[in-house]
Structure prediction request, 545 residues.
Amino acid sequence: MEPTPSRRTLLTAGLVGTAAVAASPSVLPTAAVAAPVPRTNPFTLGVASGDPWPDSVILWTRLATDPMADDGRGGMSQASHQLRWEVASDQRFTKVVASGTATARPEHGHAVHVEARGLRPGREYWYRFRLGRHVSRTGRTRTAPRRNEMPSALAMAFASCAHWEQGYFSAYRRLADERPDLVVHLGDYQYEYAGATTGVRTHEGPETTTLAGYRQRHAQYKTDPDLQAAHAVAPWLVTWDDHEVDNNWADSIPENEAERPGFLSRREAAFRAYYENMPLRPSSAPTGYDMQLYRRLQWGQLATFHMMDTRQYRSNQACGDGWDTDCPEASSARRTITGTAQEAWLLDGFQRSRARWDLLGQQVFFAERDREQGASTTVSMDAWDGYTASRQRITDGWLDGGVRNPVVLTGDVHTHWANELKADYDDPEGRSVGTELVTSSVTSGGDGSDSAIGSYPWQAWNPHIKFQNALRGYVSTVITPGAMDVSFRCLPQVRERGAQAFTRARFVVEDRDPTLHLVEDNPIDIVRQSPARQVAETLALEDEL
Prediction:
């Protein structure tokens, strides 16, 4: 079922941010106005693919001869350029199976989104773009299996939170080395902050608030060779968190209340730049300050991905945001983190799903996470703990819908966690009803630290939390009909290039059993930290989520 338009979509006219008419060998866009071919390489931002279906996939590139140009145009003129694209069944392009042209227009940041159609289900393909004598790098992609097919396995990796200034993107390079079938990105793809001199490298420009600024920031991130490698290795399934726009924004409310009068204009610029720079289908193109990002992807009968948006439609954070103790507003049934329409779409998806695994790709911590021992409850207002009635409705929805294996995929908190989800967190002995896997950050927070499994102090009174680790990294999974194999991949440091990844912990979740079974524990040289120090590190990492 396709998501229904929001109220703002219906009220706001004018399509913003579409890059190119979807193209196939038989459906070609209107020819571009003739323009001189750039003298220097225009494919400096790489290539990407995304949102794979059984018969099609989105191919993306954006032209930029000078990615850091202050005007956000990437050094390109006001002329349009017509690109050729090719999809082949072999890496040498001796068997081209689809090709066409796409127009890179200045009003869309010279980005193109090509829907390569007529492909075969469950197949590996290679693609590239041409502009005159210039040829892009080759990307590898894959179509989803037939909807009625049960694949033997899906290799899926997920990541989030990559701050340019706080480290090098070695985690993306190691993810690319694994050559997964699908990459899920859970947000904070880029950060909006002005450049600082304290990091390993520096953001260009001031804090992003304009279309030019957001375009420039996305371009800067896209120049990273490790990120380009990760985009080129597999199709991506993306959603945003807060820093693609503004820290901890909620619907029409920015972090700083004084900036509220102009925030929707800022949001519109951020949405437009996000679409221009992501391999998304035209159905996700923004309309003004509204953008339909929640959507569903089926991987045969093996898995259904419910990609969510917990920023655009949420009620404002309760009790002043941050951490709060026994906040009465947090449990109000009127509050929502998804919005009414998205919640209905998700619950309907649970009822209709016949997948072996249902995965919720979303942003913020889902399980209860109480930071203080005792009768009171101190939790984060930005997470689902600040929207407990909303969380209960979603949990009840997958139980009522008979979802076989619900798994929540989470980013945001810059640390690895693994949680067993409960229908009632006041009953810690009650059965688990789902699993949450939380990825650490690619770089946000800088170099991390290791700790022994089970040593994190909050686990003593949050027994559903089975794992926590403060190293940077990502999560790799292999999903089969019988189990989900989960590797928490970590890097010892990110402040120098080229760090290698290792599996810090590996869990298995078996079919019809949401229990997290630890099967591998690989600590590095652990510096023993006091419980107070461990908690202080967590809170510091989450200060600017």
In short: The longest strand covers residues 96-104. Residues 303 and 357 are 5 Å apart (CA to CA). The radius of gyration is 22 Å.
